[in-house]
Amino acid sequence: MDDTAEDIVFDADGVCNYCTEFLVRLDHFVDPDPAGRQRKLNALVAKVQAQGKGKPYDCIIGVSGGVDSSYTLMRAKQLGLRPLAVHMDSGWNAEVAANNIANLVRGLGVDLYTHVIDWPEIRGLMEAMFAADVRDVEVLYDNALAAVVFGQAAKHGLHYILAGSNMATEGMRIPGEWTWHKLDKRNIVAISKKFGGPKLKTFPAIGTLKYAKHILLDRAHWIAFLDFIDYRKDAALEELQRDYGYKPYAYKHYESVFTRFWQGYMLPRKFGYDKRKPHLATLVMTGQMTRDEAMAKMCEIAYPSQRDLDADKQYFLKKMGWTEAKFEEYLARPEVRHDAYPSEAALWEKLLQLYRKLNLKVGRLRH
């Protein structure tokens, strides 16, 4: 981590606040005692099974074709759960990701629900985001995925969404200026309207109030499932490859062609943000990689080879219908903040503060 994160602070020993914060969060979210972690896992499995009794499924698991979500699906099935695998297809799936998902659901014998966004619609929304010069074009995918998994949970009357998010490989905080509020439907709609984008038809957007409804009324729980086990990415990858013919990617979240080109090239070029830094730093902090190994990777391009990078660039230009000149002009323009356009980020913060206060009061009453 370095000063591309605007709020970074180093102590007298050269340790940054991102690392110290990560250790606090790791201690809070992950039980260091294997026996304690196993008890918590057993309790979670029992709750999921009890809530799903008499239903075709007992939980929802979003799958992207990446290691984390694939391993979540595999372990859930091994533990006796009956998940519905859910995938959101934005039109940018890498072929290897589609094959990984197909092999996994077939090998595990689980049902798969796929929501496909109409390509002209998602392309139009992306064009609007690019025209707006905002930092987080991927808010489109993240928002749609949340809408799909919460929607499927509500449809089937399920309370548990088991996610592949985890402290072991992505626990370090992403700097706030590198990303945006993922549930900001108002921002997506406003940007699309301002820059001539489409109305939302097949895009399953979710806003703050809809999310609150899922949490408070539908009693949906988004669970970071891998924090309940001793998750080590190399071991997980080995098991997936051995048993399900899984094909790995060069970096985290590279199962989408757009994501790998955006995070590996466009984001660093236009905004100066390299998401490999917190991802690799997390692996260093959890002992899955040495700092020297991580520093060596940061000296390389975020691709297996220049040839792969060039291929993705040409794929992006062709799929979006862009010329090289339009691409370079976009990269040269300065950033415009998301909140320069209508947003519900302020509403989210107010509701979050209220929720925390109410939770604190309930906690005190229980004691």
Overview of the structural elements:
The protein is mainly alpha-helical and 367 residues long. The chain has one domain (35-366): Rossmann fold. Helix content is 55%, strand content 7%. The chain is built from 16 helices and five strands. The chain has helices at 17-29, 34-51, 67-78, 95-108, 119-132, 139-155, 167-170, 185-194, 208-216, 233-244, 257-271, 276-285, 291-298, 306-320, 324-332, 345-366; strands at 59-62, 83-89, 111-116, 160-163, 221-224. The strands form two sheets. The chain has a three-stranded parallel beta sheet with strand order 1-2-3. It is globular. It starts with 16 loop residues before the first helix and ends with a helix. The model is unreliable at 362-367 (pLDDT under 50).
Blueprint of the fold:
Blueprint: H1 17-29, H2 34-51, E1 59-62, H3 67-78, E2 83-89, H4 95-108, E3 111-116, H5 119-132, H6 139-155, E4 160-163, H7 167-170, H8 185-194, H9 208-216, E5 221-224, H10 233-244, H11 257-271, H12 276-285, H13 291-298, H14 306-320, H15 324-332, H16 345-366
Parallel strand pairs: 1-2, 2-3, 4-5
- The CATH architecture can be given as 3-Layer(aba) Sandwich
**How many beta-strand runs?**
5
Main-sheet strand order equals: 1-2-3
Alpha-beta content class: mainly alpha
- Assembly type of the shown chains? single chain
End-to-end Cα distance, whole Å, is 40 Å
C-alpha Rg (nearest Å) = 21 Å
Mind telling me the CATH superfamily name?
HUPs
Write down the overall geometry. Answer: globular
Total count of helical runs of at least 4 residues: 16
Which spans of ≥5 residues are poorly predicted at pLDDT below 50?
Answer: 362-367
Main β-sheet: number of strands, strand sense, barrel status?
3 strands, parallel
Q: How many domains, as an integer?
A: 1
